[in-house]
């Protein structure tokens, strides 16, 4: 099991994930390949919603370039059903505000969540640490059978983990944010996840299944000082 977990972490680091059938899906330039249609269809937003969100993302990036060719450097955009999350770093407050204004004018954008930090651009080492955190959070979500991980998107900037997507219940969302809190290097968790009861039949837990358990760090992994102890890092849940 440990070896399998390492393999999955490596695949996630390389931009790979899994569809329902267990076959790996490569995501190259935002386009799903090798069974990716099944992966997208398995999300609550479906294939059409996934394609629409990818179009909005590319249009936001194009609009940034047209406004200021330097703007996209250090900025990230994540879109889930038109809800647009901006992360990364900007050199000035003016550029942060302008990035939000430009994104908000793109057709299809329902809301803009501006989490851009005004700070010098991340160095290679910090970027690598953030990539590791993102991969670890994704891996933990995949391995939790009570969380429909395909409905979550994860971004990390300077140790801050941002979640966007949809959850079937508050219990599922609580489990997801708690798991993220226990990952080494995480400073805070910010959730833009919507609660949507009544997920597709295939995503419902089996009858008699146990409710989500609060995750505990594996043996040898950094975690709370004592089992069950609350992390010192707060979870910031944004109101939608």
Describe the structure.
Helices cover 35% and strands 23% of the residues. The N terminus is likely disordered. Helix 1 packs across helix 5. It is globular. Strands 4, 5, 6 and 7 form a four-stranded mixed sheet that branches. It has a four-stranded mixed sheet with strand order 8-9-10-11. Strands 1-2-3 form a three-stranded antiparallel sheet. It has three domains: 40 residues, no CATH class; 73 residues, Histidine-containing Protein, Chain: A (2-Layer Sandwich); 84 residues. The protein has 240 residues and is of the alpha/beta class. 32% of the residues are buried.
**Number of DSSP helices?**
6
From the N-terminal CA to the C-terminal CA, the straight-line distance is: 38 Å
How many strands, what sense, and barrel or not for the largest sheet? 4 strands, mixed
User: What amount of the residues lies in strands?
Assistant: 15-25%
pLDDT average, as an integer? 74
Low-confidence stretches: 2-41, 199-234
So what's the overall shape? globular
DSSP, total strands: 11
Number of domains: 3
Q: Which structural class matches the secondary elements?
A: alpha/beta
Helix content: 25-40%
């Amino acid at each position: 099991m440990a070896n399998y977990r390492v393999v999955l972490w490596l695949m996630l680091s390389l931009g790979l994930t899994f569809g329902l059938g267990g076959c790996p899906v490569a995501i190259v330039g935002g386009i799903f390949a090798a069974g990716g249609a099944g992966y997208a269809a398995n999300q609550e937003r479906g294939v059409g919603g996934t394609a629409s969100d990818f179009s909005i993302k590319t249009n936001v990036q194009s609009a940034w370039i047209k406004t200021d060719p330097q703007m996209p450097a250090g900025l990230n955009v994540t879109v889930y059903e038109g809800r647009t999350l901006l992360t990364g770093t900007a050199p000035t407050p003016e550029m942060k505000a302008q990035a939000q204004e430009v994104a908000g004018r793109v057709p299809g954008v329902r809301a803009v969540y501006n989490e851009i930090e005004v700070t010098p651009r991340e160095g290679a080492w910090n970027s690598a640490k953030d990539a590791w955190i993102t991969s670890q959070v994704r891996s933990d979500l995949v391995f939790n059978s009570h969380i429909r991980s395909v409905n979550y998107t994860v971004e990390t900037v300077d140790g801050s983990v941002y979640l966007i997507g949809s959850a079937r219940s508050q219990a599922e969302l609580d489990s997801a944010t708690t798991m993220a809190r226990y990952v080494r290097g995480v400073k805070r968790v910010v959730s833009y996840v919507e609660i949507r009861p009544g997920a597709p039949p295939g995503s419902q837990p089996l009858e008699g299944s146990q409710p989500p358990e609060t995750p505990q760090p594996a043996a040898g992994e950094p975690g709370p000082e004592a089992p069950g102890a609350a992390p010192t890092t707060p979870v910031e849940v944004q109101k939608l």
